[in-house]
Amino acid sequence: MSCKIGILGLGTVGTGVAKILLDPEGRHPVLREIEIKSVGVRSLSTKRDVDLPASYYTNNLESIVNDPDIEIIVELIGGLEPARSLILQAIANGKHVVTANKAVLARYGAEIFTAAKANGVYVMLEASVGGGIPIIQALKQALGANRIAAVTGIINGTTNYILSRMHQEGGAFEDILANAQALGYAEADPTADVDGYDAADKIAILASLAFGDRIKLDEIYREGIRNVTSIDIHWATELGFAIKLLGIARHAVVDGESGLDIRVHPTLIPITHPLASINGVTNAVTVAGDPIGEVVFSGPGAGSGATASAVVADIINVVAALKSGTGKINQLMGCSHQHYAKVHSVDSNKTQFYVRLIARDRPGVIGEIGMRFGKHLVNLESIIQKNSHGEFAEVVVVTKQVVERNFQTAIADIKNLDAIESIATVLRIL
Ligand code: NAP
How many Å lie between the centroid of ligand 1 and the Cα of residue 10? Predict the structure, then answer.
């Protein structure tokens, strides 16, 4: 007997999912046992790029999650509400859920997974991070033998596209963002992408799976790419780095206390690092674990087909698990975290920094800057005077790994020096 599913949302991803399900030839045989029963959309008059009978469509999404014939709800409407309520209603009705909605999962994951556990259903989320890259299943299953030390990723295609073009063309952030919006690579409101909110949602999900605890979104340090200038791209390149927006989650011990260091910020990456050569809208995630060492996953982080590939893989997994007929939840597919992780505050973690200062071009300035860093226990790797413009010169400093609090105190001190015009940029180094 086939397994009936209801799809909420037939936009970019929903259309890709329906197309795969309607054309199973040459794909996994389980696909032949999946039947779309209903599709929920907002507008019934919109012409759709998929061949489904008109009778399948409804704009009453609750009727789908309450339909006793449907076993799996595929939530692809996006946003927080009504997505959250529909997911919870589906779970309450004993239905399994497949979703690509990182925003809902990062904010309401605790509520959703608690309900799923209580009702003995699956909530599958492969498409919520990294589009078509199978990173969720890897963390849940294939890397299960490892003690994970760090998950580091380029997990937002829009910002990677903008930063890649800044590297290639030397253009300014605002100009490239405007052009990316015109070309459809960036949203009209780019806030979620360029200010790092989308990447924070995704690193929260990855951290929770990698380290086995729930994560509070507001404990993640988040900084977007608006302050990255073409000058910094230039100096970073000269110093042997690429600048990428990274989501980073790593195990860290601070003052003897074990916890996590989780952050999203533009980051200088050594040009030899595998993430440095990931350009355009491509996503990539590295996972470091014991005993495996480091593995790298990369691929299309968005788009109809790529994201649908991940969604349909989840549907296949649920259908296959249901067919096994034990009636029990497969532990490898479930999500049973109950405790919140200890997330260290960003200022207590150790980081390496790149700083660009505008200083008066006069003797002794470099020494003064170096002394102030030293006074606050910030060891330097290099300090170089770059271009002079009249009475001012650019000074580029690279620190060693230092406690962020000490670094910020040093910067506040240096800012007040008579010789310093401004602290132009502060960026972290991987
Ligand atoms: P989309 O193209 O905007 O499609 C959304 C669909 O949901 C549309 O069919 C829309 O109906 C329907 N919808 C939205 N709100 C509704 C409501 N209140 N009631 C009924 N129907 C509603 O979105 P998408 O790009 O496919 O994204 C879907 C999800 O996948 C999101 O969570 C997104 O974050 C995630 N995701 C997307 C991508 C990607 O490449 N696009 C990649 C990874 C993850 P109408 O068609 O009638 O307007």
Answer: 7
